[in-house]
Amino acid sequence: MIYFDKVSKIYPDNSVALDNVSFGVDPNEFVSVVGHSGAGKTTLLKMLLAEERPTEGAVFFQSTNIHGLRKNEINDFRRKIGAIFQDFRLLPNKTAYENIAFAMEVAGKGDEEIESDVPHVLELVDLGRKMWSFPHQLSGGEKQRVAIARAIVNHPDIIIADEPTGNLDPINTYEIVQILKKINDLGTTIILTTHNKGVIDSLGRRVITIEGGKIIRDDKEGRYIL
Amino acid sequence: MLWTNTKRVIRSGFVNFWRNGFVSIASMLVMIITLFVLGSIIFTSVILTTSLEEIKNKVDINVYFVTTASEEDIVAIKKSVETLPEVERTTYQTREQVLAEFRKRHENNQFIIQGLDELQDNPLGAVLNIKAKEPSQYEGIAQYLESSAVAQRNGVPVIDKINYNQNKIAIEKLSRLIDTGQKLGLILTIILATISVIITFNTIRLAIYISREEISIMRLVGASSKYVRGPFVIVGIMYGALSALITMALFYPITYSLGRATQNLVTGLNINAYYIQNFVQIFLILLAAGVIVGGVSSYLAVRRYLKV
What we know:
Strand content of chain A: 25-35%
Structural class of chain B: alpha+beta
Helix content of chain B: over 70%
Oligomer: heterodimer
């Protein structure tokens, strides 16, 4: 479904973020990418969102080269991906409801569909009561759940989660991981980056370990080893 | 779809305007200053042109005839002067009219009235007042009048004097002053307008700089450039429209308090009356300026953060 083909990324200041990385992700997989800070995890995910371009190599989604897409094609492509970030990236001037509705509006959904789907998806992440709260009125865990709701509302083929639990306490971390697991069980591919040992060990799924921009391990049922 | 998107963009613009209240107020303050400068330019230029026009109208020359000049000679000269293309109009005052006016002007001066009464004859000559279309044309008219064919009849002078020669320097200075005044006004207008537009543009850019994170989030969710940019442009247009309204409201008390002063400066021009008479026109100018500056600034400012 996703294939990284000998991807290298060298930033203008000559720091090497990724060095000749190749791997594939199958549909319905739950892949965790682990590594120290600065190992290249975030760069990897940014490539998938077409936020960064590889210096060398190519990234394929199904059979299309992501970085060969034109600008408006990138918009369409991004709507097929749900993204979750460590810093939540919610729109600060929009309520929880509006944040999710925005993602649907962008995807060209009709008003009626938005009105019925948004409360439903907020209910799914257990935030029905906070529908009209602004991000600054929500706790970290709640914000991340809004972000997850936003990521799944358009039924994406794949969800990218960049250290989604990085700013959360253990209980919230556990809850977020459970939600992600549930989403994966329902058939969505998930790529998760983290450096939380507990998360990885409790998942028991495929783990890719990166160090210094290179893949050093790729285990089918991996554990956090660094 | 297009209609749904337009509706959403407009609604989102209104909501953003309201929720970013502080930024909106700050941006509008700057916009109001810009429009205020623009409005002031309009008012000042009206005052300037009207007063220059008035000064121009005040410039004229008087031809004083000798007391012995006959009525028909004077009428003949009047007719011939009127045929000149530079002359706008002439006014002829007979000796009697001149005397009556003189008496009226000095009615409180006992000595002058007494002196006049003691004289047998009217000591004053007839006067022909000539107004040219442009102040610079008086020289030619004066020369024409001084030529012997006009000024004399059978070798006897008919014209006593022409006051152009006394006023020559003043008239020349004035026409130069009017000329420079107009040029200076234009240059000043352009400079002021440019500066205020630049300041507004930068303010709006700063306001959007605050939202750069938001713009990148929208892009990552898959929003098209138009969809991201739309609400910002709407907000910019709202700044312009509301600022135009507020500026117009501000001008009422200001022109009201300046109305009398302008009336003293320039007869027949009350700036408040001008404001009321041309309200719609001035408002439309300010509105157009505000909406264009606001909309275009927003459009350009967002572009920078759309690259994600």
